[in-house]
Amino acid sequence: MATFFGEVVVAPSRAGVDDEEWAEEAGEETPEDREIRRELEKKREIDVRWSWGPGAAPGGAAGEALVCSRLVVAIGHNAAAFLSSFILDSVCWEVVGVGKLWNEWCRTPSTTNVLPTDSFCLFYRLISDPTVLLCQCSCYVAEDQQFQWLEKVFGCMQKEGLQVTILSTCPVADYKTQESTLTLPSPFLKALKTKEFKEHVCCPLLEQPNIVRDLPAAVLSYCQVWRIPAVLYQCYTDVIKLDTVTIEAFKPLLSSKTLKSLVKDVSESTKILKKLLTTNETHNNIYI
Question: pTM of this prediction?
Answer without folding.
Answer: 0.81
